[in-house]
């Protein structure tokens, strides 16, 4: 190994795009050989200390060595990112229109924030500017006091605890963080090293934790591997599976880059294909990365990976604390496991020799990160596979139009699995025209054919799934005199009545309010609840089918840890007859007892102002329908709709992707909309009266000069969100980077400063 470098190039963690370039630092003698690329370090920047990630070692700095400052400490003992991921980062930053450090942060275990992926670990504060409060705090005595208290006990307090200890308002602590004078660091990952007594004490605490974790992780595989349970029987591949494997396995064995689009109807045995491909990958001495849309929603899929590969699997699920996640990450890096299964951010699993990437349910929108860096895990998986020269398998019963068109254009190979295993029939789907039902005098939620089928299923002891993609009890509170609705005060959406709380809820900001006794607009007492949510479906199912045991699964019933799994298991064990749910129940489910599926209102998402509305509707109905008849008994599906002739609904009724694509492609091509162009959306937002509309218009004017196609500006479909006014612009063109460059240049001209903000979203999955 080469001599440890005396200098390193570091990406510093500051939020400003202008400083998005690496800085050089010296490695002090005591840290020589202890900092490597991919490792986090604490470095000085101006008068502050900031976190940074080492990009590479340097023999000599690019600037005057006299001016180069030393690294203060190493935050981790080992790198968290491999060279391959460090090399990928600049590309991804460019693709997302984000900064390098944002991408590096997203790559680290724990991701951008832990908000979407699991419980937050306790975060403790560190002073970032030395022991005495900086001079600038002279005019902010409360902040200076809090700073002094923090400097005396670094790494001891959370934000709230510090506020209490210093007897200041939480906003004062928030200000310290915002000004970069305090650093919030996960406890245990506390900066270790030689910076004062208190820091040493914290380092010792952290060191102990690490030693324990290391002991646990090195002991576990050795202890468990010899006693691993017998592998379950592996089924003989069907002819369709065999044909798909005949294409995939040689690419895996030879380490050849190829994109496979495994298009298999629900229950066709896609997972079995993944398992065999992974076996081949491990046999070739390489590791495999498997992405699933959401671990909690795919317990069976994950269980099958565990069954087949035992302790060779690291599951990165949302129940992990940040510490557990880091431990899994290290096991992956050290090659202690060879298969990583996880949601979106697992695409950055830091294996040394990845040999296969699998993206299950590749059409799912959860693969898109909805905050900066706004990456799409499928795109990242394909790019990693391309750079590494290894295959990637994208699987779905309803592939995205993007992947389908790419395969047609030779950027991918289509592998169809058109039949269910063991000759099980696809469910029979009936489209029910609800207008007819109404004309015939049926005002009920359940059409006659659906009600009849449910009664039959219940009589035979079979199970029923009722799907509605709208939660709550009644989504609209309407005044029958003035015709106006009750909206959220901070968002331009109607409030939904929830029976459990007896309150009106906003589904965007969670604002809650008492249901008004009289109309807030005209004081009429004639206010009524309209529309149907899952809570109402549950209640109506109980009324309509007396004696039936009804369960409900939606965001409101799965808020606590493990609740999803509990409901799922209860239903699977036959403890309920009817399950009412939102799209949570559409995914990856295999309940053999389900013979009837009712799509209560198929049009819910059909008329949203989004070019993907039809595609989403088609995918959702097809996926839900696929939940019927997975066992021995055939299934029946009832799709209730007011738009029975819409092509998305007709194609979904036949579970016919080709029919859908044939109708959808000309529409997208004519737009053009993706995948026939690149699309970047800009959302300009700010408080009322801050000139959001005016700034958005100015942005439109500047953007039009740069010869990209600009739609808008216009108020976003959700015009106000969490108290902020929102306008949006949509840019389309042939090259994403060109669009992003135009946006960057325009934002340099039309500056949007606090409290205004612009969010730039390439290839957005939501246009709302
Ligand atoms: P998909 O992922 O396409 O929905 P799965 O892989 O879950 O399908 O397979 C559906 C069911 O069929 C599972 O219970 C699986 O164990 C079983 N299965 C898969 N392949 C075979 C096969 N070749 N022979 C028998 N059963 C199979
Ligand atoms: Zn009114
Ligand atoms: Zn709201």
Tell me about this structure.
There is one protein chain. The protein is α/β, with parallel strands linked by helices. The chain has 5 domains: about 5-80, GIY-YIG endonuclease (3-Layer(aba) Sandwich); about 125-205, Arc Repressor Mutant, subunit A, CATH 1.10.10; about 240-420, 3-Layer(aba) Sandwich (Rossmann fold); about 425-470 and about 535-665, P-loop containing nucleotide triphosphate hydrolases (Rossmann fold), CATH 3.40.50; about 680-760, 2-Layer Sandwich (Alpha-Beta Plaits). It contains 21 helices and 29 strands. A 7-stranded parallel sheet has the order 10-11-9-12-13-8-14, sandwiched between helices. The longest helix is centred in the N-terminal third of the chain and has 28 residues, at about 195-225. It is globular and about 85 Å long. Mean pLDDT is about 85; it is low at about 110-120 and about 190-225. Bound molecules: adenosine-5'-diphosphate and zinc ion (ZN) (2 copies). The site of one zinc ion has 8 residues, from loops. One zinc ion binds near residues 490, 491 and 509.
List keywords for this structure.
768 residues, alpha/beta, GIY-YIG endonuclease, Arc Repressor Mutant, subunit A, Rossmann fold, six-stranded parallel β-sheet, 29 strands, 21% strand, binds adenosine-5'-diphosphate, binds zinc ion
What count of structural domains? 5
Radius of gyration (CA) equals 28 Å
Terminus-to-terminus distance:
53 Å
Question: Total number of helical segments?
Answer: 21
- Name every ligand kind in the structure: adenosine-5'-diphosphate, zinc ion
In the CATH scheme, the class of the largest domain would be Alpha Beta
For the report, how would you describe the main beta sheet?
A: 7 strands, parallel
Chain-averaged pLDDT: 87
Count of strand segments: 29
* Class from secondary-structure proportions: alpha/beta
Side by side, the strands of the main sheet go: 10-11-9-12-13-8-14
Identify the CATH homologous superfamily of the largest domain: P-loop containing nucleotide triphosphate hydrolases
The percent range for helix content is 25-40%
Q: Report low-confidence residues grouped into runs of 5 or more.
A: 112-120, 189-225
Please tell me what the overall shape is.
globular
What is the CATH topology of the largest domain? Answer: Rossmann fold
User: What is the CATH architecture annotation of the largest domain?
Assistant: 3-Layer(aba) Sandwich
Q: Strand fraction band?
A: 15-25%
